[in-house]
Design brief:
By secondary structure, the protein is an all-alpha fold. 74% of the residues lie in helices and 0% in strands. The protein has one domain. The longest helix has 26 residues. It is elongated and about 50 Å long. The relative contact order is 0.14.
Length: 69
């Protein structure tokens, strides 16, 4: 589970880096930056939903730290 989350996080960061690269090189002539940012949002939402699903299935557990401490 830890490896999957780490890989997803690396993919999210690489998508963000590619959007920065496309912003600097394309100068707004193509839509590659928009697609990269849209892919980043999609990956982030997918990762969040997967973590919620994994918690619901019991694959991961909460830390047990009380809120407010």
């Amino acid at each position: 589970m830890h490896i999957f989350v780490a890989i997803a996080f690396i993919l999210i960061l690489s998508s963000l880096a590619s959007a920065l690269y496309f912003m600097m090189t394309d100068k707004g002539k193509t839509k590659r930056m928009v697609w990269s940012l849209a892919m980043r949002v999609g990956l982030s939402i997918s990762l969040f939903l997967f973590i919620l699903f994994a918690h619901w299935m019991g694959w991961i557990q909460t830390s047990g730290i009380p809120i407010g401490r």
